[in-house]
Amino acid sequence: MIQQTSEADKRPVPSPAAGALLTGQFLVGLLGLAVTLGLLWLGFIYLRGARETSVLNAVIAIVWGVGGVGALFVTGNTVIESLPPYWRDRVRPFLFFLPGVGILFLFLMIPTLITLYQSFFNNDTTEFVGLNNYIATFTDRSMLESFRNNLIWLFLGTAGCVVLGLLIAVLADRSRFEVVAKAIIFLPMAISLVGASVIWRFMYAYAPPGQPQIGLQNAIITAFGIPPQSWLTLQPWNNLFLILVMIWGSTGFAMVLFSAALKGVPADITEAAQVDGATEVQTFFQIIIPYIQGTILTVTTTIAIGTLKIFDVVYVMTGGQYGTSVVGTEFYRQFFTNRNFGYGSAIAIVLFIAISPVIVYNLRQLQKQEGF
Amino acid sequence: MISHNARSSASPPRRLAPLFQYLAASLVALLVLIPLLASVLNGFKSNADLLLRPFALPQTWVWSNYISVLQSAAFWRQMSNSVLVMLGTAVGVMVLASMPAFVFARLCFRGRELLFNFFTLGLLFPITVAILPLYIMLRQLNLLDSLWGVIVPQVAFGLPGNILILRGFFATIPRELDEAAAIDGCSPVSYYLRILLPLMRPALAAVAVLTMVTSWNNFFLPLLVLNSESLYTLPLGIQQFQGQFGTDWGRVLAFVSIALVPTIVFYLLAERQIVAGLTAGAVKG
Hints:
The complex is a heterodimer.
Chain A: H1 23-49, H2 55-81, H3 85-118, H4 132-139, H5 141-172, H6 178-190, H7 193-203, H8 216-223, H9 238-263, H10 267-275, H11 280-291, H12 293-308, H13 312-317, H14 327-337, H15 341-370
Helix pairs in contact in A: 1-2, 2-3, 4-15, 5-9, 5-12, 6-9, 7-9, 9-12, 10-11, 12-15, 14-15
Chain B: H1 6-10, H2 17-42, H3 47-52, H4 64-71, H5 73-105, H6 112-122, H7 127-140, H8 147-172, H9 175-183, H10 188-199, H11 201-217, H12 220-225, H13 234-244, H14 249-282
């Protein structure tokens, strides 16, 4: 699976004086590198101090960022070009890597490791408490409620998006209204979940019985003589109404991917099936679904990860109250409201552990499909 | 009803299907559009009108809600903050993701697989897991409560996925090109800059558009990093506005509706790139 380093890939690099270190060029490059780094650092200090977001600062920032990376690249390359070919080929890839690796290390890997470390300590990381935070995570009532809700999100949210997305993709496929229908269903994807949540709060708005209902749902049910409901505080159903917002916003994503996959199903297979007397439904379940199952799996896992990480919708619509808290909001509460760092870290790590199998699986699939 | 549909013309029993398709599609489209239309239209109503007839067209079209949003300095400041963060993130991701992607797809060297796994491992780390130490680090770097504190982590978190996407695109460029360039005496760096990058323009566009939309809609990170109202991005602004004018639905909905316009326009313009990026990211092959 892993591609072997083949001799053919080592392209012959033409060099003026093969085998020798070009001292002059090396020194010039090194000097340039030092100057660039110094300028970048100065620019960083200036920009960091600039609290105003003026046009001038924005221009400076762009020149600083783009010019800085460009200059680093050029000077770094000058240094590398001056090396003997043996080293040149070994060092060069790192020129492309270092910026990315550096930023990934600094802002992602290290913080995650620190979180892991802190999860074994008390509130302010002064005392080692072993697994206590984890024990608390799995025994605390509000945490258990969050886990329950996250599971509801995981199953209903994912199922809703995938089934609806597939249904719409199939219905719209090769029909005359395909472009329009897909554009409309894709539309909510453009909207932040925060915006969607505010709009849906309006749809769910509640007024006491007898008063005019401005929320659509209540207007509909009161028209049928059913008393209005306060949807967002109606436990445990309110979770479903929150999930509905996510489905509204994310079905477009599933649909787009399914639609692309459906286009890849060769017409002769389905036609052959129909010639053999298969019904539409049979063709769909026994030919199309197996054919696109790779896509179905990736879409499912992607959305599943999204539901496990859900935060925006719950935070904006209920703030995690009325029995709607999820791991994301509970974590936020422990971290930033209660300042309970050890406990919050443990929750974050549990979330991470819950998500990682899905992501590992996704990566495996990706590698298999790419065949590297 | 006669269908021009290639599949159904092959089999007569599908004659009924288009009617069903139309019905189902219109129903779904309606469900999607109702909340959006309700939001835009109710923004045009006075509160009395909205309370009495929330589902009718506005009795008199009241522009004051929209005008007051458009005239508020806060709205435009949030808009420009969102734009700055979006552009900064997109540029950062494009530059920093395309370089490793090129190396992974093309150059061979010791430790390549190890490094690639390191990057893909980055996909594993949801931002929530890293957020507190990240928060402390941003404070030490004095980046807290500054737009950089949003941009830089967004770039970091955008890298793994986009490296994966771009690597896939780089791999589609024929290897003969590498050899031709090498024979012509082109160094890997100038090969990358002068030949590959221009060829990669559609892929870069896809990555840029996806990154921009993600950045524009990001809520969690700005919520933590930005304290001063003058630095709020639009999602924070929406949330704050809603808290402030809670029951003044006309104004809230007008605010949300206007805030949605840029992304919707953007989506309609760049739909092809977005779809390409999503498809490449999720279903390579």
